[in-house]
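Q: Joint fold for the lines below.
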Amino acid sequence: MSFTSPALHIDRISVVGEEAEFVKMFDPNPVGAAPALPERIDVTALPIFPFSYVPGPPPAINPNPRANPVPEVLEALGFGSPATAHTLNLDLLNGLDIPTWDGRLLPLHFMTIRDKDFGAGGTYPGPTVRVPRGVVFHCDMAGKGPPPHTIHWHGVEPTPINDGVGHCSMELGKTTYQFQPNFMGSYFYHCHRNTMQHFEFGLFGFLIVEPPDAYFSSIASVAGNGRVTLNSTPVGASSDGRFRIAANILTLPADIQAKFATGFVPGDPTYGVAGPGDVGVNDPHAFTVPYDVEAIWVADDRDSTWSDLASDAFQTFPIHGTIPGVNDNFQANAKLPPLPFPQVPFFAFNDFHADYWFITGVPVPAHLGGTAQIPPNITIPAASNSGKSGTQVSVNAQVGQTILLRCLDAAYNNLRITLPVDAVIIAWDGRPLGVPPCGSYNHAFVVPKNTPMTISVARRFDALIKAEAPTPSNTFAKIEFMETRGNTVTATALVPFTII
Amino acid sequence: MEGINRRDFLKYGLGGAAVLVVGSGLPWITENKAHAGIRVQTLNFTITDALKDMATHNTINSAQCYFWIFKEANLPAECPGPHIFATEGDTIELVVTNALDEPHAFFIPGMVNTGPIAPGATVRKFFTAGNGGTYLYFDNLNQPVNRVMGLHGAFIVMPKAPAQGHKFTPYSEPTPLVQKLFDDFGTPGRAPWPSLGSRWFPGLAWEEGDPATNTYPFRTYIWVLHQASPNLFALVGDFTPGQDYPAAQFVQRFLHDPFDSAKPTTNAIPQYFTISGQSGHFSHNSPYFCPNQRVGEPVIIRLLNAGLWSHSMHIHANHQYITYVNGVVMENPIWVDVFTFLPMTVVDYTCPYMRPPSIPNVRGIGRADLGLPAGVSGGRTWPPNEELTTFIPGPAPLGVTPFQVVGNLVDGAGNPLGAQLSPLCYPMHDHSEPSQTAQGGNYNMGLISGINFIGDRNTPGAMNFPNQPLFHGPGPGSPFGVNGVFPAAVPPPWFSK
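A: Joint structure:
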């Protein structure tokens, strides 16, 4: 018994009778006219409107369906104009070379997403997309470059044609995505074609589902031409002027509840954000907590070898044969790297080695095995943050404030995150813990300070932190990048965490 | 108990989805044809080896990998070994023969350990199936070499009965919140559970089937995750007979062999990433691997990472409740779209099979409300009739255009071989994306399966969506997709025997 004389042979399964499905997995070739978009809602005919809060259940919340007001709010902020009302307008694969922090001879090559209407993006990561819960969301997306790019709205669960998975459920290079974001929380979006390459090269951004009255609450009036005038409510805040996040604090111990009780709005204990008896929709603030400071950590890593040798977006695409399952070319598109690299065709997307690390686009100035801090006082510009101001990367809060931390692992490493303060985990993957009905099987929980938490690629959590005392100088949160192959730490990022 | 006959099983039961049922015939088994694999009283294995043609293997591209395997007496050779179902408390007879050149073993933590079996020797043991749950069986010698070489599989223990007044869970001792979740699955107020069920998870209970729709009870899928290195496994296979390959060297090469950009590569890291032995199309477009259910038909997906890489398993279309991790029923089952699988991690995803909640509807709070008026046909966003019909090749409604992919392929008679653009199919994949490859590239030929919606129990008139013959059982003669007609449901092939 040995490799050279094995006892048995296991055949590959035949694809006879399912050739088309087999080929669609790796070499889809759309034919026919570009299809009409199914089940499309004309969002340009849907309303947006000023919204004022009338507390006390059961308030008649905004009529449905509603359109997404964010493009009009961005227009009022002076960032540009929406090409189509209530519709986001993105395009994919804008190449971008970013020099490394250590002055490597070659920059890292990124593929980026750009907001065509408001000029944001073309950056790494892409613009942060925010949308109020319950509106009908539309995004026009055009792809450039080799066969159609897509956007998958990770954690959002629409019909397949809107799910944006190339090779699987749709194969459209230019389309309008439609969904209704129905759970508040933290998500992201990314290209889902040749994904091991395109996601690694930067085709992604953060996606946040906000309370149902966010953005609407910042509108003073809507003119006949659709342009809006803003009021004094901060963009992104709810109608009480506070920024809010979905959470149920009632399942926490009393002393923890007390820290976040001010401004918390309970909802129906059985039906959650629906009204009593599952009728209608509850108070828009039901099961939300106000926060003062928002921080977004998108931990990512890059492999400079992939960047150098494999930046062709076609890299390693197979080509089906005349007899699928028999003579498909699985060695196609082994592109040669640019000179002066040795002219060896690249075929190694199974072999990832992080050597550059980022927190929300900010380089971590560490080499393999090293530890380094990112600068203090980093914030995300409103233009690439759906108009919201003040969102932080490095945390800067005052005693008494409530900090909301949204964290995403966008690396091909696992993350081990250690916070210097107690935190309450209030949601995973855009699903608030303990919020009825679907969250009534779980509950928020406390992670004591200095307790490491390990998460893997694409996982998100939302954490609430009460700033109770000033932090000593040089306090950091620690984000360790752990190899998926052997779990060793490839680099450690220190994120300034300052409470004064 | 009506088992599948052996001839039919060999005909359809290829592809790593082989199921073995051992022990007593309690209700979960006798009423559950979906699990009616070959029924045995004894687990009878030979530890041997095999050369396997992987997903990208064909006449112009060699893609083979050598494995050590648990060859069951009744079943075709496959890596991993068969999915084994047993019932809590059963006494199980185990007979293992070692046909390889070095000592091997069969091990289930806390249940059975044969200890080293010498080359050529046979060991017979009896053991008792433990608590209801998901377990990995494997060879625990020369760890992790023997396990990673292919000597592993899934061992599922079902509880004998639910707690009094409650519905079945997959566990003997469910926590209160896990019990509540399973009690809430199903339309409320129906016999025999007038006080159980919920308005937000209407449909069937997990333990409940529906013969009228070919829906079987205790709907279960098993995804054994593995990484295969053809270069390293060949070295191990040809190592000095009778000697163990050095484990530290194996791990070092499997995880950290120097980078090599070329193909075929000489390095020893994995090149194939499999779910229960299959990749790409073979694990995605297969009813053995990919759940094919209706809204309102909850399922359990049991995932076991037998390899040495960690994975991050992301399912589209529904968030999953994490009900079980490494032998522990969760006190706090979080609801996620992706979860962490370090080596040897075993996790149960409990999938409510709710209507994908981001489809626009009246209230916009994630419930299965009436869809919004939409499209050119005067319908609503749910059921998505335009999406289902527009994109099947064929006559289209007024105003919409037929569209298909892979339209330049023809069959032997010159007829186009089109694939529907958008059946209600979604992927499930590892988000740690280097595993989405085969032989270093070829995106989508790696660690991927899916989740499909074939109807909606809760929307009148939408029990069965129109669909095209997407799925075939492996091999000719499969009952799937014949005559271009998609069956009313996607039962396992032995169901309609």
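Q: Anything notable?
A: Residues 247-256 of chain B form the longest helix (10 residues). The CA atoms of residues 163 and 245 of chain B lie 48 Å apart.
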